[in-house]
Amino acid sequence: MSMPSSFDRDDQDEVNELVYHELVWKKIKENPFVPVGMLATFVAVTTAIVKMKSGNKESANVWFRWRVIAQAATIGSLAFGAMYQQRDRFLKDSNMTLEEMQTEKIKNKAKEREKLWIEELERRDTAIQQRKELAELKKIELEKIKNESSKIVAELKELEERVKEKSSKK
Amino acid sequence: MTTMLTLALTMHGYIADLNLFFIELLVLTSSISLWVRDVITEASYLGDHTKAVRKGLEFGFNLFVLSEILIFAALFWAYLHSAMNPTTELGLQWAPLDIEKVEAMELPLLNTIILLSSGATVTYAHHAWIQNSYKGAAIFMAITTLLIVIFVALQFCEYFFALFTIADGVYGSVFYAGTGLHMFHMITLIIMLSISTIRVTKRTMSQTHSLNLDTTIIYSHVLDVIWLALFVLFYVWV
User: Fold this and answer.
1) How far apart are CA A109 and CA A103, in angstroms?
2) Does A53 reach chain B within 8 Å, measured CB to CB?
3) What is the pLDDT of residues A95-124, one digit of tens each?
């Protein structure tokens, strides 16, 4: 017995229990474009070779083009089928419908936006706070300067008075 | 013959290293080059490729393509034979128990797309050739060659990173036999495409004498289609 792992696909056991032709039949039913496309490709390339052999090169080229187109369609349907299956499996695993997922997504987005807005407001708040503090500091400084200047003015006046007194004595 | 002998003897441990094989490969490559040179000389300068000769060559090539399809049919048969009735040794399941498959929608899908693009470019080269444009044909043949080279390189990567070997039971054997045979054909196709590109560039082919180009184009298309079958059967439907 091996331990379950997150690498396991959910339907792996189910797939392993199928007999090969049942598995192929299941795959064909899941994506019927693949065998049809393959058949179209084989037909196109055979026709092209027959045309080539008969010397009708233009017609052979056209059939070769159809070959490439049919093969591209087959591979495209394979790839898109695989993508679709992956999506299906994802939806099955998540026990939510697509609409629920979308509303959930929108809700999450709204929450995220709200959170961002609150953060922005907080940022602005702190900026205002900082500015206020700065203004406070400036005020104190201004106060100091005023005091000092008033002192200087007072000193000047004293000096002037002294000078006046001296001159009147003379 | 010597390639087969040296390879078989090396694989079964009668020859210790690959030096003899590399020497043999050198001999093979040089003899092929000289042979191709002779054939090109006979075709383009000596005028030996009369209508009857061309018909014979074309017929021979078509039979060769048929034999290619049949050998791949045999490999598909071997694969389906084991897949539809997996034995107890395989854990009664396909792909066998504990085999880590190559994920189809990863590198193999890229390879498939590259091969498909090469199909498109070779078709355009063919179209250009029909329109008597030597330049267009040469350029698009060169692009095709490059795409096939990338394909082979990616195939090497895939083999290098695959989590099972050719010795891992019938699954490994048949997987590498199928995809490996296809890869060897791709290497041959690279040689054929580059020879055709050079011949178109050097103008040793004309509208009435372009068997080399025609067969190369047919071959590349057939190998593309075989790869589609390989991809679907060996990679996707497991």
Assistant:
1) 10
2) yes
3) 778 888 888 899 999 999 999 999 999 999
Whether the model clears a pTM of 0.80, i.e. scores above it, the answer is no
A40 min Cα distance to partner chain B (Å): 11
What is the DSSP secondary structure assignment for residue B235, as one 8-state letter?
I
Judge residue B136's burial from the number of C-beta atoms within 10 Å of its C-beta, 0-12 exposed, 13-18 middle, 19 or more buried.
middle
ipTM of the complex: 0.84
Decide: B48 and B26 in contact? Cβ < 8 Å. Answer: no
CB contact under 8 A, A68 and B123: yes
pLDDT of A2 higher than 80: no
Q: What does the alpha-carbon distance between residue B80 and residue A21 come to, in Å, rounded to a whole number?
A: 9
CATH topology of domain B61-236: Four Helix Bundle (Hemerythrin (Met), subunit A) (1.20.120)
**Contact residues on chain B for A30, CB-CB shorter than 8 A:** none
What does the pLDDT look like over A61-92, one tens digit per residue? 999 999 999 999 999 998 888 888 888 888 88
- A79 close contact with B: CB closer than 8 A: yes
The pLDDT score that the predictor gives to residue A7 is 54
CA distances from residue B143 to B135, B154, B193 in whole angstroms, order as listed: 12, 17, 10
List CB contacts (< 8 A) between B116 and chain A. Answer: 68, 71-72, 75
Residue B8, pLDDT above cutoff 80: yes
Residue of chain B minimizing CA distance to A14: B93
Cα-based distances in Å from B74 to A40, B63, B178, B218: 22, 16, 10, 21
Structure tokens that stand for B122 in this block: 């070779």
Our CA-based measurement puts residue A100 at a distance from the nearest CA of chain B, in whole angstroms, of 29
Break chain A into its structural domains and give their ranges.
12-95, 97-170
Give the range among A161-165, B13-17, B201-205 with minimum mean pLDDT.
B13-17
